[in-house]
């Protein structure tokens, strides 16, 4: 896994110089809870966004997490079948849930 | 973009913003979370900020930055939607395309944009519609921002109207679509496109390549972004690549599903009963944020403290900012800056305060617009499912020692 990459910032640079070369956005390994169905999270969520995007939603109901996963499938076209939707929802509610079904 | 190896087990690294796990009762809006730690990681051209995600990058400006009317570029908040942002842009070949219902399609290079059109500047607040979302209880969906998903800058560029004039609009032209360069991981994912109705266009709408006298920072949309003064930032498309004029509205995820509030008078609903009809968040409501002191500040008894902060709305203008240091029993006018940055900019305010008692003291700030709109108390703000448009009276509690 890549370590954090810190970009040296050119304090005073001529116009445009800062993007004359490839920009590299740091990779951050967010803490995430391990548990049942974590594999599904790795497979389906990380393609598009960091774990931070998940854990910074706050603790939510099962209905909320299910809705989020379905949004990813319906609107963002994540290739997930029913089983994948079920597994990711269960994981999210188990570890980042608020205990309420809805 | 190079695909990183995402599939190994995630290491634990400090720096992720902590999620609020407060157990406040349901249905009560409160002050947004105000204890986020600055990340140890600095993103390109940015100082270390509060970080929620690296991909897409989500960075929040700390409270203490909001003491002046302009927000420094390297502390300006960042919010992208897609994982894949171009990592190389060649300003010598970058071209923006204008097509659709125009008499003449245009392909304008960055250099032509800077030399062949009238150059204009506008100072305007850029604020995420979900700024301060962490105030809502039960927790609304989305990143649990504190109050720093915003900033104010002087934007320099070319009027969109001038460009459309040069292209020449067809008679039936009605909508202008803006396409950004960020890409999703899957081809089928909808692109980040926004549409603006022609009637919403005025001379303050510009395509900007400069921010506070410098090139746009990469993470703020280099080399060119749409600037829509008065509107929430979801409409300010970054890394603009294409402008398409159409006669009918296209259905778009980021217009029709995200960034919407209940279409009723109070723009509110309950978690149990969501309001079916929704509308885009569009224009900002009146709001103010205290930049100093913060809860970490050392405030000495009988010392001369100057409370500072910023206030803004969607362009009607700020009439007054009122400050209270006795939990809202009495309010006094703060001093406002000269307002020379224009009606879309922050008005910086300051308020002399000599703490007369020891212990916890709460400072509150309330902005009032020129048309008489004023900020409500946090607890009087009604819930909406997306946690949008929070504008409660800001509070900072300090310990006077």
CATH superfamily of the largest domain in chain B: Oxidoreductase, molybdopterin-binding domain
Structural class of chain B: mainly beta
Structure class of chain A: mainly alpha
Let me know the number of strands of chain A: 0
Description:
- The complex is a heterodimer of chains A (102) and B (401).
- With 102 residues, chain A is mainly α.
- Chain A has a domain at 33-96: Cytochrome Bc1 Complex, Chain D, domain 2 (Orthogonal Bundle).
- Chain A contains 4 helices and no strands.
- The radius of gyration of chain A is 18 Å and the shape is globular.
- Chain B has 401 residues and is mainly beta.
- Chain B folds into 2 domains: 1-283, Oxidoreductase, molybdopterin-binding domain (Sulfite Oxidase, Chain A, domain 2, Alpha-Beta Complex), CATH 3.90.420; 287-400, Immunoglobulin-like (Sandwich), CATH 2.60.40.650.
- Helices cover 4% and strands 31% of the residues of chain B.
- In chain B, the strands form 6 sheets. Chain B has a 5-stranded mixed β-sheet with strand order 5-4-13-8-9. In chain B, strands 6, 7, 10, 11 and 12 form a 5-stranded antiparallel β-sheet that branches.
- The interface between A and B is large, with 50 and 60 residues.
Architecture blueprint of SSEs:
The complex is a heterodimer of chains A (102) and B (401).
Chain A: H1 38-44, H2 51-55, H3 62-74, H4 82-96
Chain B: E1 50-54, E2 57-60, E3 78-79, E4 95-100, E5 106-109, H1 110-115, E6 120-127, E7 150-159, H2 160-167, E8 175-180, E9 193-197, E10 206-211, E11 214-215, E12 225-227, E13 240-246, H3 253-256, E14 260-262, E15 278-280, E16 287-292, E17 305-312, E18 318-324, E19 332-333, E20 335-336, E21 347-353, E22 359-369, E23 394-400
Parallel strand pairs in B: 4-13
Antiparallel strand pairs in B: 1-2, 2-3, 4-5, 6-7, 7-10, 8-9, 8-13, 10-11, 10-12, 14-15, 16-17, 17-21, 18-19, 18-22, 20-21, 22-23
């Amino acid at each position: 896994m890549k370590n954090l990459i810190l970009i040296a910032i050119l304090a005073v640079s001529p116009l445009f110089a800062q993007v004359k070369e490839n920009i590299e956005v740091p990779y951050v390994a967010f803490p995430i809870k391990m548990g049942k169905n974590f594999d599904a999270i790795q497979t389906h969520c990380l393609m598009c966004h960091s774990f931070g995007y998940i854990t910074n939603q706050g603790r939510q109901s099962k209905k909320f997490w299910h809705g989020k996963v379905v949004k990813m499938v319906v609107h963002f076209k994540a290739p997930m079948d029913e089983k994948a939707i079920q597994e990711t929802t269960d994981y999210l509610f188990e570890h980042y849930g608020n205990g309420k079904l809805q | 973009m190079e695909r990183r190896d995402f599939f190994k087990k995630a290491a634990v690294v400090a720096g992720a913003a902590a999620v609020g796990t407060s157990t406040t009762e349901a249905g009560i809006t409160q002050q947004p979370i105000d204890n986020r730690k600055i990340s140890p990681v600095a993103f390109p051209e940015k100082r270390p900020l509060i970080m929620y995600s690296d991909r897409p990058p989500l960075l929040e400006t700390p409270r203490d930055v909001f003491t002046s009317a302009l927000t420094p570029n390297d502390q300006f908040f960042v919010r992208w939607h897609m994982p894949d942002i171009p990592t190389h842009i060649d300003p010598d070949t970058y071209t923006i395309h204008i097509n659709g219902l125009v008499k003449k399609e245009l392909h304008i290079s960055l250099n032509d944009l800077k030399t062949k059109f009238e150059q204009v500047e506008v100072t305007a607040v850029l604020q995420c519609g979900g700024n301060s979302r962490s105030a809502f209880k039960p927790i609304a969906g989305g990143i649990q921002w504190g109050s720093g998903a915003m900033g104010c800058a002087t934007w320099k560029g070319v009027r969109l109207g001038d460009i459309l004039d040069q292209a020449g609009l067809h008679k039936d032209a009605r909508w202008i679509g803006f396409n950004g360069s960020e890409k999703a991981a899957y081809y089928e994912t909808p692109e980040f496109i926004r549409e603006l109705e022609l009637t919403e266009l005025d001379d303050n709408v510009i395509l900007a390549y400069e921010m506070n006298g410098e090139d746009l920072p990469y993470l703020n949309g280099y080399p060119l972004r749409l600037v829509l003064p008065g509107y929430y930032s979801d409409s300010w498309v970054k890394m603009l690549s294409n402008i398409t004029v159409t006669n009918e509205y296209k259905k778009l995820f980021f217009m029709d599903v995200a960034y919407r509030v209940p279409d009723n008078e109070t723009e509110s609903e309950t978690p149990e009963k969501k309001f079916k009809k929704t509308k885009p968040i569009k224009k900002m409501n009146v709001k103010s944020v205290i930049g100093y002191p913060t809860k970490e500040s050392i405030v000495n008894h009988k010392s001369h403290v100057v409370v500072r902060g910023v206030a803004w709305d969607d362009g009607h203008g700020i009439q007054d900012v009122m400050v209270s240091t006795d939990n809202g029993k009495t309010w006094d006018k703060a001093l406002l800056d000269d307002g020379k940055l224009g009606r879309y900019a922050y008005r910086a305010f300051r308020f002399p305060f000599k703490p007369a008692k020891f212990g916890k003291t709460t400072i509150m700030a309330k902005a009032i617009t020129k048309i008489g709109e004023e900020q409500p108390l946090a607890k009087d703000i009604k819930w909406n499912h997306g946690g949008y448009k929070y504008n409660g009276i800001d509070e900072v509690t300090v310990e006077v020692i």
